[in-house]
Amino acid sequence: MKRGLFSLTVVSVGFLFLSLADPARHPVGYWSEAYCFSAAKERTLGEKVFHDIQNRMRIVRIPSVQSYIDRLGRNLVSVADRSQFPITFFVLKESEPNAFAIPGGRIFLTSGLLTLVESEDELAGVMSHEIGHVVRRHIAQRIDASKRLNLGTLAGVLAGILVGGSGGGAMMAGTLAMTQSANLRNSRENEFEADRLGLAYMTRAGYDGHAMIRFLKKIYRGTGYNSAFPTYLSTHPGVPARIAFLESMMGSRGETDGQEKFTDELKDIQTRILVVEKGPLESLDYFNGLLEVDPDDALSLLGRALVEKEMGRIGESLEDLKRAHQLKPGDPQILRELGLAFLLVGRTADGVDALERSVSLAGQDAETLQYLGRAYRVQNKLDEAIESYLKAKTLDPDLPGLDKDLGSAYREKGDMGRSHFYYGLYFKRRGQLKYARFHFEKAGELSGQDRRGREEAMRELRRLKP
Q1: pLDDT tens-digit profile of 271-297?
Q2: What count of other Cβ atoms lies within 10 Å of the Cβ of residue 148?
Q3: Residue 154, C-beta contacts closer than 8 angstroms, at least 6 positions apart
Q4: Which of 1, 52, 110, 133 is the most exposed place for a label (fewest CB within 10 A)?
Q5: Total-model pTM
Q6: Distance (Å, whole) CA 428 – CA 431
Q7: What are 66-110's pLDDT values in tens digits?
Q8: CA–CA separation, 439 vs 425, rounded Å?
């Protein structure tokens, strides 16, 4: 993991982290009406930028990582000001620590950022800052200074600015984008406002605002102080001034006692991200090196087990997970992986037992409930499977594959009305509206005496675009 490349991070975005504005200059609601780039145009542009980023970068699609980021994001969005767009979160495979928002409400965090933060409070500060950008539609403000660019050109320019690196520069070179790119970066006032809002959102959600200061100091140290400051920072308030401003805003409020929320889960996520960043062979060497120093490091055993699983060495993975569980018997993430390993080698009863214990320890873990539901289905315990899936859906309605799991479980039970309904939700989420419509129509037809189920299906049909 690279940790000495903070300067490129700030050059590439200028969105990552901290400065504070004078809120009196921009009353609430001002930005939503003060410029011409409409929300509909921003939404369209956001789709194009998202497409460009997908083509250039790899989105990390590990369910446990996505579930964790989604849950943290929902907690922060729930206390934030209203956004004109749904706010969603993605993780990019990129070793540079970075975070940015694109038009239309999507927020990206890099794998390098996730491995750099030392507490959930620090991560919440970064995410809250980006939520502030979305709420105030800061990119739309900057686009008003670049009206000569069409949406297609704008998408390429923004992707280049946000993602950064040589690819972004090459994409912008020789076009009008090169002369307009500075206008599209967030202004001083945008950054001020995003940090003011971010600090408010994270503290409302119960996080320690001092974590913003700690993380900014870490970034500042990583740049090599003033001698190595990136040129782009010359257009923004100095980092020491930001830190001083934040400290004055925090005033006499003392720091927390250091008991961060979900600390063990964050460590688990960081271990999984390391495997993605390094790849199987390098990750195996990395965890082997750690275990040579400390053979009883349960987290390193978990990491090595994940690598071994990816390499198809299931027996070795299972042995490492057993050892990790002996060292940390109360760790729900280790128990979850142990349960999945048992299932892979055909030890279904042992797998169910481990997953049940993981659920009882973790409580609010939608992904483990989903895995448990799948294990119950192997045992033909369909009622238990459906109950586990529904609990998972209550905790995380967007969990990948969950609607399909519910559709399959209800089909196996013989309840075709509910089966078609959840298949409809599955295809709707995938954007396959033709199939979604078919399943919702069938759900309505087959609901029988289930009036509520029929009404749900009809409501979903009305929500589909014609």
Answers
A1: 999 988 888 999 999 999 999 999 999
A2: 8
A3: 45, 48, 143, 146, 184
A4: 1
A5: 0.71
A6: 5
A7: 888 988 999 999 999 999 999 999 999 988 888 888 889 999 999
A8: 9
